[in-house]
Structure formats: structure tokens, C-alpha cells
Amino acid sequence: MEYVTAAPDPRSQAAASARSGRRSLAVALLCGALGAAVALLATRQRWAEGTATVAGGAFPLTAKGSDVTGVPAALAIVGLAALVAVFAVRRAGRFLVSGLLALSGAGIAAAALVSASDSSALDEQAAKASGDTSATVDALTHTGWPYVAAAGGVLLLLAGLLALRYGPSWPAMSGRYERGTDRPRRTARPVDPERPEEIWKALDRGEDPTGA
């Protein structure tokens, strides 16, 4: 006894593909925007603190993320720009921009984790405060903000990976905006010869407005 297998409906497959593309697009936008915002916010927070010995007393020192390393903030801006540029390019350009987005996220995470235990920024502050170039920071402690920045980088990385996987099915800018086509010109209104101003213009030109 033979069994007949129903062929898949192309329309249902196309609808499923469209739904998958919309979901991946929404997730990528959310992860990319949130990741860049988190990374930028984290670099403005205190990453490390300690003390320096100045005139026999303890002088408090603090270092923000931007004092420790400027890489996460710079890459967050690059990643955010790449996230927007994904929709302005197509084919190979979209693939390259998606790769840049993913690399920006990976670079943020790596730079933040490497700098999580860095003390060079506070050592420089200790040397300036004490006037001794060989002075180092004492009672050094670190906060959890470097790991928050790394988490932001992971979100950007995820957005880049989604763009690499599903980007070809995402919409792009319309051809009108890409080519910068001009707006349609307005058609001139027909001239009414009976209007007073048109009669005066005809007289100035030496014409007979009555047509006689």
C-alpha cells in the first residue's frame, strides 16, 4: 500500500522564514543597543580604588573605567555604528559590517576582563600624589564594573553573530534613500490669460490681451 506525502507549502515556508527573520532582527537590535549602552555606562563607573601614602597619611585614590582603558568605550561606539550600518548595506557589505559588530563586542569583553585587575592607572595617580615616581597604590581593591562592561561586549557579540546568520533575510534601506533620488517635481499650474496680472504682463510685452 502506497502512502502519499504532502509536499510542503511554499507559502508557509516563506511565512515561517519571515517570522524567524523578524525575531532575529528584534533580538539583534535589542542586544546591540543594550550592549553598547551597558559598556559605555560601565566605563564611566569606578573600577578600582586604593590609597597612596602622602605626608605620612593615606590619600584615597579612585579610577574609572575610562582611566584604566579606553578600548571598551571606543569599541562600543564602533559597534553601535556598525549596528546601524547593517541596514544601509547589502550582500558582502552587510557581511563585513556584521563581522565588525561581532568583533567589537569580542574586543570589549576581552579588554574589560584583561583590565579588571589592572593597577597601572592608580599607580600613576599615587606617583603624582606623593611626588615619588616609584610609588604604588596601597590597599588596592576592584569593583564589578569591568565584568558589567564585559557583559555588554557579549551582548554586542551576540548581535553580530545574529547579523552574520540571519542578516541576509533582514530588510535594507530602500533604493530611493540609497541612491538619493530627487523628489518628484511639481507641475506648473496652467496660466489663466484672463487674470489681471497676466493681462498687464501681455501689455508689457506689447501683445494684445484681447486677441483681436
Automatic annotation (TrEMBL):
Start-end of Basic and acidic residues biased regions: 176-212
Any one Pfam family match given in the protein's UniProt record, by short name: Trp_oprn_chp
Q: Which residues cross the membrane?
A: 25-43, 69-88, 95-114, 144-164
Which keywords does this chain's UniProt record carry?
A: Membrane, Transmembrane, Transmembrane helix
Would you tell me the protein name for this molecule? TIGR02234 family membrane protein
Report if keyword Transferase is assigned.
no
Q: Which InterPro entries match?
A: Trp_biosyn_TM_oprn/chp (IPR019051), Trp_synth-assoc_CHP (IPR011746)
Task: Give the top-rank taxon of the lineage listed in the UniProt record for this protein.
Answer: Bacteria
List the residue ranges of the region (Disordered): 175-212
